[in-house]
Design goal:
Chain lengths: ~110, ~240
């Protein structure tokens, strides 16, 4: 049974957070550049927006949203880890509260659409 | 009673090309990784260098890399780490190798001192002995930390140590956190200065390998998080 030394959830959480952060940092300048076309060259922006009908771009958008979400929760995890000296039972209660909140919010969302 | 043969690969020092690195060791029902290394030294190659003392998980001498993972070899059963019938054993990561499986622990212990992991006394023999509240939060933290046996498993597991030679590492920082929580220790300002310096607690990326691999189930990652909080509080209070 050979397990790599890094095959544990804490390390995976670390690397996912950092890689998603670098990815978003690379994406944001491009994002602002495209948005700025609304002011400088609206026709070119429209042409650019047609790209979003492409299924490959749609897939990339899913990846982008995943990157955003995973980076946000990774950051929240890190702040909780380093700033909140909670006991394990308090952590379990907090996680339960968040999970129940998402469940209820999710139900409302499902009813709305 | 032997139960077949183990294929043991030892990562030995460079410059010893003549020395064998692969050994066939008889398997027993009850056998630790340290037993396997000892069998090689006693029966196959007496020139093999390795280090151990107590054999019961107290002294912290026998840590090695076992299949790429740092472990206390005297308390690790070989059946738990075998890859088929094979195992690779090497010297601890992140420390200079002296020979074969023996590393130089000096950088590890020097950093222990650099993190102010020494007693800072304020009382004399004429003062009354301080009453300790065993139930207080600070004492509970300190009681957890004093179980460290200085085996350097966390130091070998840490990727931040690998990439930053100045980083004090999980064990030294956990010692600083333990002393910070010990009411008998009077070195608060010195400790906070030491752990917020260049190689201090803020280098930690919370990868958690120290906590995952600590053989005594200690939690250096949370101890370092505690130091991050205390140094930050001290910063916002301008050191008051």
């Amino acid at each position: 049974m050979k397990t790599p030394a890094r095959a544990h959830p804490l390390w995976v959480a670390f690397i996912v957070h950092r890689v998603s952060g670098v990815g978003l940092a690379l994406f944001l300048p491009l994002h602002f550049w495209v948005l700025a076309m609304a002011m400088t060259d609206p026709d070119r922006l429209d042409g650019f927006l047609h790209l979003t009908e492409n299924s490959v771009v749609k897939l990339a958008e899913v990846g982008l949203v995943f990157g955003l979400v995973v980076h946000m929760f990774g950051g929240l995890r890190l702040m909780a880890l380093e700033w909140l000296p909670w006991t394990p039972s308090q952590k379990t209660l907090a996680a339960m509260a968040v999970a129940i909140s998402f469940l209820i919010a999710g139900l409302f969302f499902m009813k709305a659409i | 009673m032997t139960l077949g043969v183990l294929k043991v690969t030892l990562e030995r020092s460079a410059g010893l090309e003549q020395a064998a690195t692969v050994f066939e060791v008889p398997a027993y029902e009850n056998q630790t990784v340290l037993d396997v290394v000892s069998w090689v030294q006693q029966n196959a190659d007496p020139t093999l260098s390795y280090r151990f003392a107590c054999r019961v998980g107290m002294c912290g001498s026998c840590a090695m890399m076992v299949n790429g993972v740092p472990r206390w070899t005297c308390r690790t059963h070989i059946s738990k780490v075998l890859d088929g019938d094979a195992v690779t054993i090497g010297p601890l990561r992140n420390l200079p190798v002296i020979k074969d499986l023996v590393v130089d622990m000096d950088p590890f212990f020097d950093k222990w001192v650099a993190a102010e992991g020494v007693h800072h006394g304020a009382l004399t023999r004429d003062d009354p002995i301080e009453a300790i509240d065993e139930q207080s939060d600070a004492r509970v933290e300190a009681n957890a930390g004093i179980e460290c046996i200085n085996c350097s498993v966390c130091y070998a597991a840490c990727d931040t140590v690998t990439s930053n030679a100045d980083y004090l590492g999980p064990a030294a920082l956990q010692r600083a956190w333990t002393l910070l929580n010990d009411t008998k220790d009077d070195g608060r300002a010195a400790i906070l200065d030491a752990v917020s310096d260049k190689g201090g607690c803020h280098n930690c990326h919370s990868m958690g390998s120290c906590t995952v691999y600590c053989p005594n189930d200690l939690d250096p990652m949370s101890a370092i998080a505690g130091l991050k909080r205390e140094t930050a509080k001290s910063f916002f209070k301008m050191g008051r």
